[in-house]
Design brief:
The chain is α+β, with helices and mostly antiparallel strands and about 140 residues long. The chain has a single domain, classed as ATP Synthase, domain 1 (Sandwich), CATH 2.60.15.10. Helix content is about 30%, strand content about 45%. The chain has 1 helix and 8 strands; from the N terminus they run ββββββββα. A hairpin with a 4-residue loop joins β1 and β2 (about 10-15). It is found in: Cell membrane; Endomembrane system. Belongs to the ATPase epsilon chain family. GO terms for molecular function: ATP binding; proton-transporting ATP synthase activity, rotational mechanism.
């Protein structure tokens, strides 16, 4: 099987593999040769794959995994950090990915709150001036 891990800026991993393990919101799963075509969104996690007897890892900041008709696996993610030191990836990189994702979630929530407040003010002003046909 061919594995390709890509970010918006580069191809991080491109290699032949014998198996892959990844994680989506429903949990961990594996892919072996002959797997049916498949599409899923990935959680912030570490993907691992075997090439021969050796295991390799890549920390992923979420993303999309596709198993194509030809059995090739493509992972598209915002950020990927490959490495063979699982402790470092788990401790440092995943922690950073998770904190960045949490910060983005807070920013999105605050942005939506600001937009809703602006809409409420516009609607209340429209109601005040409804009898005059003016918006100020």
């Amino acid at each position: 099987m061919q594995l390709k891990i890509v970010t918006p800026l580069s191809v991080v991993v491109e290699t032949d593999i014998t198996s892959l393990r990844a994680e989506d919101v429903s949990g961990s799963f594996g892919i072996l040769p002959g797997h049916a075509p498949f599409l899923t969104t990935l959680a912030v996690s570490i993907a691992s794959w075997r090439r021969g007897r050796r295991e390799h890892f890549c920390a992923l900041r979420g993303g999309v995994l596709v198993v194509g008709e030809d059995g090739g696996i493509t992972i598209a993610t915002r950020e990927a950090v490959p490495g063979d030191d699982l402790d470092h990836l788990d401790r440092d990189v995943l922690e950073r990915f998770q904190s960045e994702e949490d910060a983005e979630r807070v920013e999105r929530s605050e942005t939506v709150q600001l937009q809703l407040n602006a809409i409420r003010r516009m609607v209340s002003r429209l109601h005040l001036n409804a009898d005059r046909g003016a918006f100020r």
